[in-house]
Amino acid sequence: MKRKTHTKPDGTTTSKPKRHAELYEEIRADIQKHGKSAKTNKLYEGHIKRGQDWVKRYTALQKNVEELWRSQGTGVSVLESDDSEAGAVLDPEFATCLDDVPVECTPTAIAMFMHEKCFGEGRGKSTVDQVHAAFLQHYNRMKGNKYHESRRFQRDEVKQEWVGNPVRSPEVEDMLKTCHNKDGEADRNHSRPMTMGDLQQIWVFMKTQCPDNMDVDMSLKNLGPKTKWLFWLAYSSVGMTIWTRNNESTLLKRKNIVLNPPPHPSGKKEVSGQYFDVNLRERKGWQKKMSRNEHQMNGHKFRIYPQPQTPWACMHTHLLNWIEHYEKYFLGPDQHLEDNDYIFPAFTSTWTTVNRQEPISSKSINTLINGVAEAAGVKGAGEFTTHCFRRGGAQYRFMYAPIGERWTLARIRWWGGWAEGEHRDTLIRYLLDELHTYEEDHSDALCPAPIEPRSIVQKEDCGQPPNWFVYWCNTNFANSIQSIQTNLSTLQSPNYNPQSSSNLYSSHLHSSTPTHPPQLLTSSTPPSTLLGPAVMTHTQIAVLSSPMSQAPQSLTLESGIPMIPPISRSHGSKAWEIAVKDWQFPDPDRGLRRALKDWPKEWYAEIDRKVCYGQRKMVAEEFLNEYGGDKQAFCTAYPEYEKGFTALLKAIRKVHQVSGTRRTRQRG
User: Fold this and answer.
1) Which residue stretches belong to region Disordered (predicted)?
2) Is residue 8 part of a domain?
3) Whether residue 365 sits in one domain with residue 300
4) Within-domain flag for 668
């Protein structure tokens, strides 16, 4: 509503003052329009309308049922008996009790509508929650605060009318709890995340089905497979890169993609390389930010650069390839997508006919995702739903990307469009739910086969990152102590006799010093020992500083603390080769000062290193001794190497158990 203006004598204009009633109505209208997002308001309006229609149909049905019962019975309804429970008799106002202001039977009608949704139609608790929220908002906004939830629903005997919000009546609240508890504890229905490994597996499979050199121009029969392939690559890479929900990806339009974006609003120098911008202004999270004035100039845009290290998920490459293919074969010569054209339109089942004004349906995209995954042999095919790429992309950047490419929780919250007020525990559950569930799953405790470590920090290299971090701390701490001791020994003072004091101090300490070699901190040391203030006993200082304490060469500070360098999951099929190399040769750059095969036993006696050392040894000796270092023969015998170090290790163990060279661990 535009305000009326009038012109002053000096030529300036001012808004004409409004009457209080006018301004009040305008405020109420703004609350109605902007209190919730347009999408939420539309959803709630639908529930209200369906509720109003349902009570009318129900009233008509009950009238027919009652007439039929009377015609076949005694003419007196059991529901009209004197001892009938309150509410058991259908109120005369029931058919219209949801149309206007609430009446006595309004709570009953809302509760029955929720019951119909949950028990009659078999809907989940999310639908019931929406119905509950819709009616709660509906009455909160009716006639000022007269029916607001802050007031108990009751009859005002003075004015002879009902006040308060009927949704907060015990009848409706009890029904809400009943619907929540209908099936007991709900099964986990989180979307299975689409991992980088899944995308890579699909990429390899589809390369065999639709090679890059497939000629569409020469054969129309190739158009469908090629279109499907390029559509999949673009759609999956979009979801994996900017973490869109499937419905957000399907609604992406050409106007959301800016191929020649303006400079960054900060004015900072652009990084060299090609890029384009993607605008997700309508994303759910950004809408919430904007509604609270938390949006930024660039907060809803993503700058997309090539990602050559993960070609199966490179949005920059695949989205541009898809647009080029779409325009060339489905729009005609020299034709381009218009601003309101969908990037991912609806196709026929043959992928040769398109409706550019309609986005691909949720059912079709779900069928595509799970069908492609099943054809490629991806484990868990059929479990991918609307959040599969969003969860997979976020989890990858949080904990699975190579070291140096992982993101902070703050960046993940921003990139995913989560609200600033989103509780961090909610976000962590979103990222770590599967890992936590799998790690806490002990259903296979009776399995006779050795159980692989499951801890989140115990990757394929059995917890090495924590170990090498501990060793690094020990090395630097011990070296610092040694440096301090050296500096102290050079101090001279007129009142200080270094020789006599040193002898007295040393003799006193050495009398209580154990004769066995000094023990260095390992990963079993409590975290507080490493992260808290450094406090050492006299004995520890003497052991580190005294020239009389002769430690074995394997544990001297000069030789360095032994460690097994970690092998990242990102090495994939090359991981076993790194393990063999570490077994045969030292690698000082990675902290391996001596080849693993030359390690003395005390170096790997600690339990974590012992397990990891044994795994490296098993793979290396299998390759060197059983296959004579023949890479081709080894890879042929163990194709599991392509899946990573852990998969290869399991395959070797299985062969050893079958051949009798390895016994299954006895438990109990």
Assistant:
1) 1-21, 492-527
2) no
3) yes
4) no
Average model confidence (pLDDT) across the chain: 75
The span from the CA of 348 to the CA of 86, in Å, is 56
Tokens of 503: 């002898």
Would 409 be classed as within a structural domain? yes
Q: Which of 153, 180, 207 is the last residue of a domain?
A: 180
CA distance 576 to 623: 9
Spatial distance between the Cα atoms of 512 and 517, rounded to a whole number of angstroms:
14
CB 102 within 8 A of CB 162: yes
Does 222 share its domain with 342?
A: yes
Task: Give yes or no: residues 287 and 325 share one domain.
Answer: yes
The total domain count for the chain is 4
Across 623-646, average pLDDT: 90
* Structure confidence by residue, pLDDT tens digits, 112-162: 999 999 988 888 888 999 999 999 999 988 887 888 888 889 988 888 899
Same domain? 473 vs 529: yes
pLDDT tens-digit series, residues 252-284: 999 999 988 777 665 555 555 588 999 886 565
Q: Tell whether 348 and 427 lie within a shared domain.
A: yes
Residue that is written with structure tokens 């429970």 in the block: 85
pTM of the model: 0.47
Hey, is 302 helix, strand or coil?
strand
Do the domain assignments include residue 557? Answer: no
State percent of the chain over pLDDT 90: 32
Kindly list the distances between the CA atom of residue 93 and the CA atoms of 57, 59, 89, 102, 270, in Å, as whole numbers in the listed order. 13, 10, 11, 10, 68
The boundaries of the domain holding residue 139 are 22-73+89-180
Q: Could you identify the residue written with the tokens 């921003």? A: 414
Question: pLDDT confidence of 290, banded at 50, 70, 90?
Answer: very low
Task: State phi, psi for 324 to the nearest 5 degrees.
Answer: -65, -45
